[in-house]
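Need tokens for this chain, all 153 residues.
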Amino acid sequence: MDRKQALGKAMALCARQEYCESDIRGKLKTWGMVQADSDYIIEELIRQKFIDDLRFTVAFVRDKIRLNQWGRIKIRYMLSARKISGSMIRQALDGIDEVLYTKTLQDLLQKKDKTLLRETDPRVRREKLIRFALAHGFEMREILAIVGQNVYE
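Here are the structure tokens for all 153 residues:
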């Protein structure tokens, strides 16, 4: 595949869905593009606004909260793995609607709580809810505000 074909294919991908620079670099590498061609294609995609890491980051945060019910910790980790800068991650996380975030955590815990009907020990039940929410990347302070402070009653 030559540079022009790869650019067209990358533009088509970016027109359908948000991608970050590292995602497209990975795709270019799998397509067998050399570093110089990859750099040119990335620069062209950024220049033409097909790639915007901040736009990607904001959309990623919004989608992962609403669709996957992830917390800030897991989102931050996944964005870091995609080589998104810390300042962009902070900026996108600062834009989270706190009401939506808390409601998402409440809904997640209510759904999980319904699966724990056989668990009669309230302490164990609460611990399971806390572990579940932590695994989804929510912060302990947020979880305890909903589940309750006294884990060992």
